[in-house]
Amino acid sequence: MTSAPLQAIRGTRDIWGTEIRLWQYLEQHARDILGRANYQEIRTPLFEATELFQRGIGEGTDIVSKEMYTFTDRGERSLTLRPEGTAGVVRSLIEHKRLSQGVQRCWYQGAMFRYERPQAGRQRQFHQLGVEVFGSEDPRVDVEVMAVALEFLQALGIPNLTLELNSVGDPADRQRYKAALVEYLTPYAADLDPDSQVRLTKNPLRILDSKDPATQAILRTAPLLPQYLGKAAQQHFEQVQEGLQALGLAYELNPRLVRGLDYYTRTAFEITTQDLGAQSAVGGGGRYDHLVEELGGTATPAVGWAMGLERLVVLLQKQGEPPAPELDIYVVSQGAGTATLSLQISQMLRGHGLRVEMDVSQSSLGKQIKRADKLGSKACVIVGETEVTTGQIPVKWLATGVQEIVTFPNGFRDATFWQKNFR
Ligand code: ATP
Ligand code: MG
To answer: Is residue 7 in a domain?
Structure first.
């Protein structure tokens, strides 16, 4: 009896082949750009106590109410695969008492998990790159994180990006706005889409996010958040815009932009592109001055963003594939005593920093050399039975067909010879 072949779970995918090089490139690029701004990488666990996300993201959000991968472990604890990175980073900084040590600039990268309907640009396991800066209310920090995000994207050569900006105010401002919005929407309640009807009592701000045309039409004449900003939030918002202008960074005010998470205050932004179809958000972020308190730490202002790496990979693929790393040497062998020698030679050559692959097919030398050609190897080291006794090993340059003899072991120890031929 044969069983059906196993497949990757719906909403997850394997990353390999030419695509993996884009990921490696993205990761290296993130380290470079974020390192230049002196952000420190942090790696937090893939799962945390469920309560962390309930408190840190908010019960009224889509993520907590319907997207979390929550399970009970063998010790009866309720755990959740992280749906986003911020809550874990905050938990970590509180736990390690880093928030009393001045401004902390962090970045992270890794897999996130959300139970969503899989479609282009939307998976159940996906990857985010994010930054968080803790310990300053200074609008320059809001500007810095946005500038770093844009620099990261622009240096990747991604065109047609728009920075959308809003301020969601301080909690009291938002409270007044919420009341006004609910008052405005209540007479239309029956005409709203079903999700928005639920949100009207649970999380009215999220109604602004609705993509339903009827709801959108009703929202067209709704009150707007920026009209409700208090003095402090208003001033902060103006300073953020002045900072962006001073750096020559273009932005568009979007008074309907709200972030999906409850803990955001003041600055909210999203970076979008028309090149991704329906899932137009490359990333988003904002200020969350009350999250640390919410999670039991000393009140600490903070601002950050997260980007979806799958969406970036799609954008990068439009620019073509990055070149594959070239194979330097393919070691072929056939006959008695050649197995050990081919192992030793491969090891020595890798020691010189060369990219080396050892053929283990035991097919004919001719076939093995053909394989070297196919792999695009620069050279081929040919180990046959005679060579085991003589120690005179042919090295064939595949582009020219020229062959030269290298003596084992001394010739293979000669780093200068190998490096001058390959670098
Ligand atoms: P969206 O409106 O697209 O659902 P979101 O508000 O849920 O986005 P955030 O929580 O702010 O997104 O996450 C930041 C970024 O992570 C998004 O802008 C997007 O690029 C990416 N992202 C979010 N959810 C997914 C997913 N399920 N699959 C792939 N990428 C995602
Ligand atoms: Mg979402």
So the answer is: no
Q: Which of 338, 355, 283 shows the shortest CA–CA distance to 315?
A: 283
What does DSSP assign to residue 115? -
Q: Is 116 in the pocket of ligand 1 (CB under 6 A)?
A: yes
CATH code of the domain covering residue 404 = 3.40.50.800
d(CA 63, CA 60): 9
User: The domain that contains 26 carries what CATH number?
Assistant: 3.30.930.10
Is residue 295 within 8 Å of residue 322, measured between CB atoms? no
Atom of ligand 1 nearest to the CA of 114: 27
Judgement on whether residues 66 and 101 belong to the same structural domain of the protein: yes
The total number of structural domains in the chain stands at 3
- Kindly report the protein residue whose alpha carbon is nearest to atom 6 of ligand 1: 260
| Per-residue pLDDT reduced to its tens digit, 53-84 | 999 988 878 899 899 999 999 999 999 999 99
Does residue 234 form part of some domain?
A: no
User: pLDDT tens digits, residue range 302-331?
Assistant: 999 999 999 999 999 988 888 888 999 999
Counting from 1 in the atom list of ligand 1, the atom nearest the Cα of 116 is 27
Structural contact between residues 308 and 273, judged by C-beta atoms closer than 8 angstroms: no
For 191, the domain range is 171-229
282 lines ligand 1 (CB under 6 A): yes
206 within ligand 1 shell (Cβ under 6 A): no
Give the residue-averaged pLDDT of 377-404.
95
- Is the distance from the beta carbon of residue 311 to the nearest atom of ligand 1 less than 6 Å? yes
55 plus 136 within the same structural domain: yes
Banded model confidence at residue 258, pLDDT cuts 50, 70, 90: confident
For residue 122, the ligand 1 atom closest to its alpha carbon is 28
The pTM (predicted TM-score) of the whole model is 0.92
Please tell me the distance between residue 25's alpha carbon and the centre of ligand 1 in angstroms.
21
Are 271 and 308 within one domain? Answer: yes
DSSP string of 243-262, one letter each residue:
HHHHTT---EE-TT---SST
